[in-house]
Specification:
Strand content of chain B: 15-25%
Oligomer: heterodimer
Order of helices and strands of chain B: HHHEHEHHEHEEEEEHEEEE
Strand content of chain A: 5-15%
Helix content of chain A: 40-55%
Number of domains of chain B: 1
CATH architecture of the largest domain in chain A: 3-Layer(aba) Sandwich
Number of domains of chain A: 2
Shape of chain B: globular
Strand order of the largest sheet of chain A: 1-10-7-4-2-3
CATH class of the largest domain in chain A: Alpha Beta
Strand order of the largest sheet of chain B: 1-12-7-4-2-3
CATH architecture of chain B: 3-Layer(aba) Sandwich
Radius of gyration of chain B: 22 Å
Structural class of chain B: alpha/beta
Structural class of chain A: alpha/beta
Number of helices of chain B: 8
CATH superfamily of chain B: NagB/RpiA/CoA transferase-like
């Protein structure tokens, strides 16, 4: 697995939010993808769109509830088509399978099309350690690979790089003259990678969907690199999460309508490439061998938790990233692991462990925009709340976000609020404390009008008032007003 | 095929862990999935209805195909006949300045014989047809050297403006993705209305062929493109920069 930095979320996001360049890049993506998406929905009508969403959800619910059955069916049909399905319980096992294929098939050069799961596995270093030359071929992924970074968006992995960044990178790594013309840079990538496509012994792809009924792997792309990776080399390995399965070929229609529109606002991508097994004996071209690796790597934990199971319906369109007020200000890297944004804030804690990623579920205003744009109607806010409950109540203290003192205070607060007598005493004490604070400049936590506490100098309270204003205690509480003036009427 | 040295979790163990997570027994779904219980006869029936619908709406659907293909980035030419199609191909070839074209071996080229017309322009035309005496690398090199790839269609989808290509003798996967220009010839009889039509047909064929899906199915809609640098759309990044759909009929 790649280095986990989810525990640094607070520091990383505080830093990212100050980066004006990143902010401009994020605005461009949010604007571009989101507006196009809305146009596409208007075109087909909201009613039709909602109908597609319901269908897609129904298919996903059915498939995930019977995942064992469909995995078995898929396995049989991949084999019937002459391919081989491998099951990997975790990243190491998936990497071992790839390594075994590489060693026994004398693989020297590999081309890769976009695969988030391969990021999850940290596959590239494994291949390199085996002496394999690995080439990411999606333009964004290629840029990221040259820069030795990680993707910052599910669909637009290099969005955080400006054209000047890319031009400088190409000059540095490819030794070509500095040229920030985007067309020329794309042409450079075409030229460099064209040779690699033809040279490669191995093509590695992800999968947007795998069809159980026929053993078919489906890749959606715009650049054509996915087609080249799965057509030119003599071995093709598809790697994906076990949740990507759908029962029937005919289910694809719904997903092909939803995914491109939700992701980039396209009616359909330039290419939808479906491959079933290796090339047949009389095909003109195509790979001699086909392997499909299905990865668990923590997914069965999501499956086992009825509150979080629906995270497995995700088709990785990125619509929730584009709309999210948090993601659109801090970008993907701050989330510290492979999957960013609202869905990442659910998935990452489940895959890397809540103890390391407990800050992520807090990274939401719970505004619900992610749920609204999700093409599968995934209730992300509900899952974030569920994870927050876990981070508050977990018996394992490493999973909890609040210090022990805060928990003690919260319990005291609950006691206080449920006893009128104690509350009365506390209010009196509070008024006294406020008075003292007003006359001692050392504390001075109040604003001039005395209505808000902007900064408390008390150990636990200061954690709250750092980012929130608390109202001061009023001269009369409602309780007191009621007793004095209203109770007679 | 199964190699005992291959790492990984055995299927039975993996499926059991999934079942444990779901709290499920090893049984098929109690409510079987509608589509997986359809018989071949039912699929045939649905396909017959689809054919009828396509026939009734053919002129409208051809217009829709042309419209959606253009929106998807195809340069669409509605040819009045074979001669017109050949003229159009000649003009594309001339404009591209290429000296070498690869075309598939498909029966549409009997209706639209392009070879002589292109040879007259001094262009070398390679017909793709692999046989066992020919190394596959030779074929690939021919395609790679070509400035234009010309193919027919298995289907064309009015809903999305997509070309559909399936594996067949004489049609390499690479011919529609490697050359910088792709020309596709679509006949009225290739036309389908929706994605559902396409997948229904494929499912029927899958059943008819005893569970053989064919090694690939490509939907192609417009040129290769990327927006990975600053959301600026660039066409022709790995696949063709220019794609033409010639609609016959």
């Amino acid at each position: 697995m790649p280095e986990i930095k989810t525990q640094d979320f607070t520091a990383a996001s505080s830093q990212a939010i100050l980066d004006p360049k990143l902010r401009r890049a994020l605005d461009r993506v949010a604007e571009g993808f989101h507006v196009a998406r809305l146009d596409r929905i208007e075109e087909v009508t909201q009613e039709t769109w909602d109908g597609w969403k319901d269908q897609a959800r129904e298919i996903k619910v059915h498939t995930i509830e019977h995942l064992d059955y469909y995995l078995d069916l898929l396995d049989k049909n991949v084999a019937a088509a002459g391919g081989q399905l491998h099951f990997a319980k975790d990243a190491d096992e998936a990497n071992e399978i790839v390594a075994h294929i590489v060693r026994t098939r004398d693989i020297k050069v590999a081309t890769k099309s976009k695969s988030m799961v391969s990021e999850e596995l940290s596959l590239n270093p494994v291949l390199e350690s085996l002496g394999v030359e690995v080439w990411e071929t999606d333009l964004g992924e290629y840029i990221i690979q040259l820069a030795e970074e990680t993707p910052s968006h599910l669909v637009a992995p290099a969005l955080h790089k400006s054209k000047e960044d890319v031009a400088a990178l190409f000059t540095d790594k490819l030794g070509i003259p500095y040229d920030e013309d985007i067309y020329n840079m794309a042409a450079t990538a075409r030229t460099v990678l064209r040779d690699k496509f033809m040279e490669a012994d191995l093509g590695i792809s992800g999968a947007n969907f795998v069809v159980a009924e026929t053993g078919t792997l489906v890749i959606i792309s715009n650049e054509g690199n996915g087609r080249l990776c799965t057509s030119a080399p003599r071995v093709h390995i598809g790697i994906t999460g076990m949740e990507k399965i759908i029962p029937s070929m005919q289910d694809l229609s719904t997903f092909l309508r939803l995914l491109p529109r939700s992701a980039t606002g396209q009616r359909i991508t330039s290419y939808v490439s479906m491959t079933t097994g290796p090339r047949r004996s009389d095909d003109e071209d195509g790979p001699e061998e086909f392997h499909l690796i299905l990865v668990d790597n923590g997914r069965s934990k999501m499956l086992a938790d009825p509150n979080l199971r629906e995270a497995l319906y995700c088709i990785r369109c990125g619509a929730c990233l584009n709309i999210c007020p948090v993601y659109s200000r801090i970008g993907g890297h701050a989330y510290g692991w492979v999957y960013p944004g609202p869905i990442g804030a659910v998935v990452s804690p489940m895959l890397v462990g809540l103890a390391k990623a407990k800050e992520l579920p807090q990274a939401s205003s719970l505004c619900g925009a992610c749920r609204e744009v999700c093409p599968i109607n995934i209730d992300i806010p509900k899952m974030l709340l569920n994870l927050r409950t876990k981070t508050a109540e977990s018996p394992d203290s490493t999973q909890r976000t609040a210090p022990e003192m805060e928990r003690v205070l919260a319990r005291l607060y609950a006691k206080l609020m449920s006893s009128p007598r104690l509350l009365k005493i506390a209010v009196r004490f509070g008024r006294f404390a406020q008075k003292i604070e007003r006359i001692t400049p050392f504390f001075s936590p109040l604003t001039k009008d005395g209505k808000w506490i902007r900064k408390a100098h008390l150990p636990i309270l200061s954690r709250w008032t750092r980012s929130r204003d608390l109202p001061t205690l009023p001269k009369q509480t409602f309780h007191e007003i009621w007793q004095k003036e209203l109770s007679d009427e | 095929m199964n190699n005992p040295n291959m790492p990984g979790t055995p299927k039975s163990k993996f499926l059991q862990s999934v079942r444990d997570a779901l709290g499920r027994e090893d049984v098929p779904p109690t409510q079987p999935y509608r589509r997986l219980t359809e018989t071949q006869a039912e699929l045939e029936e649905q396909t017959a209805q689809m054919r009828k619908r396509l026939e009734d709406r053919l002129p409208t659907l051809l217009d829709k195909l042309a419209q959606m293909a253009a929106l998807g980035g195809w340069k669409v030419h509605r040819a009045s006949g074979a001669e017109d199609a050949i003229d159009y191909i000649q003009s594309v070839a001339r404009e591209s300045g290429t000296t070498s074209i690869a075309r598939s071996t498909q029966d549409v080229f009997e209706q639209v014989p392009v070879d002589a017309a292109l040879s007259n322009l001094g262009i070398k035309v390679t017909t793709i047809l692999w046989d066992e005496d020919m190394p596959r690398e030779t074929l690939r090199e021919e395609i790679r050297q070509s400035g234009i790839g010309i193919t027919g269609a298995d289907y064309a989808l009015a809903e999305t403006g997509s070309l559909v290509v399936l594996p067949r003798r004489g049609l390499a996967r690479l011919i529609s993705v490697v050359p910088p220009v792709h020309i596709a010839l679509v006949r009225a009889k290739d036309l389908l209305e929706t994605l559902d039509d396409l997948f229904l047909l494929r499912r029927l064929e899958y059943h008819q062929q005893g569970g053989e899906m064919g090694s690939y199915l490509n939907l192609i809609t417009g040129p290769s493109r990327t927006a990975d640098i600053e959301m600026t759309i660039v066409e022709g990044v790995h696949g063709p920069k220019e794609v033409h759909m010639i609609i016959l009929g």
